[in-house]
Amino acid sequence: MSTNTSNLLYLVTIVTFILALRYLSNPAHARRGNQIGAAGMLLAIVVTWIKVGTTSWWAIAIAILIGGGFGAVAARKVLMTAMPQMVALFNGVGGGAAALIALAELHRILPAPGAPKADISIAIVFSALIGSISFAGSMIAFAKLQELIGGRPITYPAQQFGNAIVIIVAVAAGVTLVGGVQDEWLLWLLIGTAAPFGILFVLPIGGADMPVVISLLNAFTGLAVAAGGFELENNVLIVAGMLVGASGTLLTLMMARAMNRSVANVLFGAFGQLQTTAGAATAAANGTVRPTTTDDVAVMLAYAHKVVVVPGYGMAVAQAQHDVRALADLLEARGVEVTYAIHPVAGRMPGHMNVLLAEANVPYPALKEMDEANSEFPRTDVSLVIGANDVVNPDARNNQGSPIYGMPILNVDESKAVVVLKRSMNPGFAGVDNPLFAEPNTLMLFGDAKESVAKLTAAVKAL
Amino acid sequence: MAHTTLLVFEVTILVLAIFLGFEVISKVPTLLHTPLMSGTNAIHGIVLVGAMIVLGQPDKSAFTWIVGFAAVVLASANVVGGFVVTDRMLEMFKKRDPPKDT
Lengths: 463, 102
Hints:
Chain A is α/β, with parallel strands linked by helices. Chain A folds into two domains: about 80-270, no CATH class; about 285-460, TPP-binding domain (Rossmann fold), CATH 3.40.50.1220. Chain A has helices spanning about 5-25, 30-50, 55-75, 85-110, 120-145, 160-180, 185-200, 210-230, 235-260, 265-270, 270-275, 295-300, 315-320, 320-335, 350-360, 370-375, 395-400, 450-460, and strands at about 305-310, 335-340, 365-370, 380-385, 415-420, 440-445. Chain A has a six-stranded parallel sheet with strand order 3-2-1-4-5-6. In chain A, β4 (about 380-385), α17 (about 395-400) and β5 form a beta-alpha-beta unit. In chain A, α1 packs parallel to α9 (about 235-260). Chain B has about 100 residues and is mostly helical. Chain B has one domain (about 5-90). In chain B, about 75% of the residues lie in helices and about 0% in strands. Chain B has four helices and no strands. Chain B has helices spanning about 5-25, 35-45, 45-55, 60-90. In chain B, α2 packs antiparallel against α4 and α3 (about 45-55) runs antiparallel to α4 (about 60-90). The relative contact order of chain B is 0.11. At the A-B interface, α1, α2, α3, α4 and α8 of A face α1, α2, α3 and α4 of B.
């Protein structure tokens, strides 16, 4: 196949990717879009295979079967609640592949005198750097979300300084390579420092900030792939990689804005340090909260006009989404209006709650975004907060000393009554106190979210 | 095509892709942000094409062989996993439930 023919066919692939993203503007045909994108990907793979010809075709086939087989099994088996770490994992391997391509390309080009050209070496250094960071960072994000290591921020002395040294070594190795020192070991040094940097930079980031990190790492892999396109002079890699890089960057900014923090603050921020200064307002910890029983809550819910469910990561952990849906069905059958208020950063990845509730067959028109939900709280009888904490914390509005001050929140305290389902009085992932729990219109229902909701359902049924 | 000409062309499409990316994504509702991430995740699996080119080089050293093979394995996990996960998610987004058999 000539280069022109393959480039034209790659263009078809690019178009399918753009269509796939365009179709995502509406849930009604989003799935079709994804299938179109997959078809385009298949086309690109077949075209490349034919192009490569008889060289190692069987090795390629075996490698695809191994990788693809793993991907297919992992993607099929994973529970919807484990989706964030699965996305992190697949993102990481993509970044790793981009870094490996950079390594192989440098190895191929180096023996030639005067090689590589400046732009090629820049691309190689860039994709090796970003790809390694994305790979290692995603693996740590995966481990954190899978709870292989603690979700709380992990800090150590002189963290920022240590991280800075590591990344400076990596960048210096890259600059030396681009500067004309032709030594493959420089790239090894670069990868050998960039990967630890990826680990170091994700480790101190708390679980609540994961949506921003995952989205950023996704953008990183996209950029690394685009750089790979420059190395191999391949348009489809450049365009597809950059589409992902641009969209991932935009999504990252949107997530950070939803928390009213800059991306830099999320990544290198002193979330851990700030909260110690804000420990003064511990109304909730002073025992002024009012615990309640499932029967009382069941009556409140059954005789309400409007109930708003506010889900958070706790619902995902307890896998309570199906029980929540069952309870909502029951309430709706009694004529209660039930909607769901979704905070943009609830959960561990952008839009996490939407996916979980969709899994439980909640119709998507019932899922309300923050602004719409906030306009509804004043005429809401009961807000049912299930495993959410920081996204309903009034301190974000009122307490300037709070680490989450300024973050837009769901104003559940404006509704007539708030019922918080919570395992214990431990503070949320961010480790911040929540005065909502001590408000006069707030009741606490302690216990595992899944069990509590199931009990509530039984109690409503018995009425 | 001379190398510089090609480079200029590549930079051109790179810059256009940036704007296209911003444009397309800004139309996606927050409802679908997870499938968006997962879908773009699958799209950067296009790195598989690059990995195949590396592994498909004639007369390659043992080093390239190993690195290329590993790259194809990783990239194909990215492609297949990415699209399958996205499909599973999008399948769930429905306006109303299908009639129940209870």
